[in-house]
Specification:
By secondary structure, this protein is an alpha/beta fold. The protein is built from 10 helices and 9 strands. The strands form 2 sheets. It has a 6-stranded parallel β-sheet with strand order 3-2-1-7-8-9, with helices on both faces. Strands 5-4-6 form a 3-stranded antiparallel β-sheet. The structure holds nicotinamide-adenine-dinucleotide and zinc ion.
């Protein structure tokens, strides 16, 4: 930590920042050992699954072949259950502590931001540990040893993953994860927060980190901030859709660049 050198112009611009929005994707959790979708080492790289991962994680497949949807999900959730927050997650907590106003919009479903201690989180794609029965509507969860929430009330994710089948409710119905699958609507309450906290009143600084930025609701806050004359930064070792219009594209790992940004921000408390 502390070795990553930010461009001088960025260091100067960071001095005036009071409000911050951070947008994260699977890449921020790569350094915690959770595979991304796209990019090097992503689960799309799997020769058996390839691009078919999107099909597996879609609403129609959940209806016709829930075991297949769950096998794809277990790749993420099964890695998440053993994962710990990394330097990138921790730096975002530090940025929130320093900012007068802060919002974190994450596409991740691994719970690592919550574990690290981030507070104002919009988890727009939900949480892979929360379950709801598709027949009776009863809610349940996977036990999460990371939080000590092993009350025995919930399900054991390792056992379910080893079985390679969709977990089932006592009523006989199939559980679905409380995540947004491809082809599904985003939750309205979270969309409203996204609009209010990122679009209507863009923060002084908006950072996009570890996302291939494929979705319009991820690109839009960056565009709006840029057009409103706010500071925009992308952190990603590879170029994406938004690399050309952000003020600074840092070709770096989240765990290297985010601590440098957190350190450079002024203290407001
Ligand atoms: P993505 O998999 O499409 O892209 C990951 C991006 O992260 C790539 O652009 C890659 O270059 C970059 N990256 C890789 N390592 C990095 C690092 N150390 N630091 C910074 N960047 C790094 O991810 P996405 O855009 O979030 O879209 C994937 C979708 O899949 C999301 O909807 C998400 O809900 C879901 N998903 C979630 C998890 C998770 O919760 N951890 C994991 C996989 C997929
Ligand atoms: Zn049920």
């Amino acid at each position: 930590m502390g070795d990553f050198a930010l461009p001088e112009a960025l260091l100067v611009a960071l001095r005036d920042v009071r409000s911050v929005g951070v947008i994260t994707g699977a890449g921020i959790s790569a350094e915690s050992g959770i595979p991304t979708y796209r990019g090097k080492g992503g689960i799309y790289d799997d020769p058996d699954e390839g691009d078919r991962t999107v099909e597996a994680l879609s609403a129609p497949t959940l209806q016709s072949d829930p075991d297949r949807t769950w096998r794809a999900l277990f790749q993420i959730a099964g890695a998440a259950v053993n994962a710990r927050p990394n330097a990138g997650h921790t730096a975002i907590v530090e940025i929130e502590r320093k900012a007068e106003r802060f919002v974190l919009l994450t596409q991740n479903v691994d719970g690592l931001h919550r574990l690290a201690g981030s507070r104002n989180i919009i988890d727009i794609h939900g949480d892979a540990f929360e379950l709801i029965c598709m027949s009776c509507g009863k809610q349940n969860q996977f036990n999460d040893p990371r939080t000590g929430a092993t009350t025995g009330q919930g399900l054991d994710i390792h056992r379910c993953a080893a079985a390679g089948r969709a977990p089932r409710c006592p009523c006989g119905g199939v559980y679905r994860p409380e995540v947004v699958l491809f082809g599904e609507m985003l939750p309205e309450d979270k969309l409203r927060r996204l609009y209010a906290e990122l679009l209507d009143n863009p923060p002084d600084l908006v950072i996009s980190v570890g996302t291939s930025a494929m979705f319009p609701y991820i690109v839009q806050p960056m565009l709006v901030a840029r057009m409103a004359g706010k500071l925009t930064i992308e952190i990603n070792p590879e170029p994406t859709e938004i690399s050309d219009f952000v003020a600074f594209h840092l070709k770096a790992k989240a765990g290297d660049a985010l601590p440098a940004i957190a350190a450079a921000l002024p203290n407001r408390v």
